Amino acid sequence: MKSIVTLAGVLALSLTMFVGGIAPAHAKRHHCIVGAIDIKGNSVEASATRKKKSAACRVAKRRCERRLKRKQRKHKFGRTTGCHEVGIASPR
Question: What SS3 state is found at 88?
C-alpha cells in the first residue's frame, strides 16, 4: 500500500513538472502611459507596452508628441509643457 501511494505521488509530481515545462513562458512586459494637458484642460494620452521600461516610455512619448502636434496643427490644443509620464504599470 505504501509503495502505491509513493508511486502515485511521484507520478503526480512528474506530471506537473512535465506539464509546467510545456506551457508557454510569458515574458514580463512594462506598460508606460504618457500624457499632456493644456491650460484649458484638454488632454492627450498615449501608452505602450514593451519588454523594457525605457523602451515602453520612449514609444509612448513619441506617440503622445505625434498626437499633440496633430491637435495643435488643427488648433484644438493650446499651450502646454509637453508630454510627461503619467503612470507606469508593473510587469505582467
Answer: strand
Task: Report how far residue 31's alpha carbon sits from residue 50's, in angstroms, rounded to the nearest whole number.
Answer: 7
* Residue 85 · residue 49 · CB < 8 Å: no
Q: Cell 494637458 identifies what position?
A: 37
3-51 per-position pLDDT tens digit? 665 655 555 656 555 555 554 555 789 999 999 999 999 999 999 999 9
User: Cβ atoms within 10 A of the Cβ of 65, count?
Assistant: 16
Q: Compute the C-alpha angle 78/61/43, nearest 5°.
A: 30
State the DSSP string of 15-70.
HHHHHHHHSPPPPP-EEEEEEEE-TTS-EEEEEEEESSHHHHHHHHHHHHHHHHHH
